[in-house]
Design goal:
Helix content is about 0%, strand content about 50%. By secondary structure, the protein is mostly beta strands.
Length: about 120
């Protein structure tokens, strides 16, 4: 059973930085997509970034491009999201998710397994 556990969320002021982590275990695939999504109340999940473990190709959403970076540590089976220059509109619950479908989808319904989420709050 695949398990994903996020950590690293918190409260910061605008302009600050955070690094989210997602510890993954239980994979049976050799290559897969890992994605970061975020969700605010009464709205659907928005893709933030994704990475394909088979070749390292990445996607960064337009709203965070130039500020967020996605990366992975294969030895630690951990996914990261480095978030710089945070804005109040980045406030959301952030989730990591995974799927064995390639190319990596921007749609949340394509992802099979999800973490419990970690809250990021950015104050003005």
């Amino acid at each position: 059973q695949v398990q994903l556990v996020e950590s690293g969320g918190g409260s910061v002021q605008a302009g600050g930085s955070l690094r989210l982590s997602c510890a993954a275990s239980g994979y049976t695939y050799s290559s897969y997509c890992l994605g970061w999504f975020r969700q605010v109340p009464r709205k659907g999940r928005e893709v933030v970034a994704s990475i394909y473990t088979g070749g390292g190709s990445t996607y960064i959403g337009d709203s965070v491009k130039g500020r967020f970076t996605i990366s992975q540590d294969n030895d630690k089976n951990t996914l990261y999201l480095r978030m710089n220059s945070l804005k109040p509109e980045d406030t959301a619950m952030y989730y990591c998710a995974t799927t064995d479908l390639f190319p990596c989808s921007k749609k949340d319904y394509a992802y099979d397994y999800w973490g419990q989420g970690t809250q990021v709050t950015v104050s003005a």
